[in-house]
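Progress note, sequence design subtask.
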């Protein structure tokens, strides 16, 4: 099992979105076609949507503070948290095509 929290979660996707800097970085691709942004808040929606315009085949996962993304050996994907925070999922315009 691999767990990514905060900036460490960015590497798990195909791309990581640094919303503060407005930049997209390559990740390890363990979560296929995923743009992952850490420390996600509703105020970062515009940066995520801009990244999805660049990578319309992607799915964006906005991971807020105090939430970790966990990957299992059989392709499992789960979030770990003890708060009410939830991951925000946004589909690119060509996701799944």
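Output:
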């Amino acid at each position: 099992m691999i767990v990514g929290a905060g900036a460490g979660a960015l590497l798990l996707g195909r791309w990581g979105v640094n919303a503060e800097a407005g930049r997209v970085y390559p990740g390890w691709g363990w979560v296929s076609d995923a743009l992952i942004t850490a420390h996600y808040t509703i105020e970062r929606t515009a940066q995520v949507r801009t990244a999805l315009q660049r990578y319309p085949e992607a799915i964006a996962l906005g991971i807020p503070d105090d939430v970790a993304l966990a990957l299992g050996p059989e392709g499992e994907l789960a979030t770990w948290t003890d708060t009410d925070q939830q991951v925000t999922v946004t589909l690119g315009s060509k996701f799944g095509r």
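The first strand starts at residue 2 and ends at 5. Work on this subtask will continue into the next period as scheduled.
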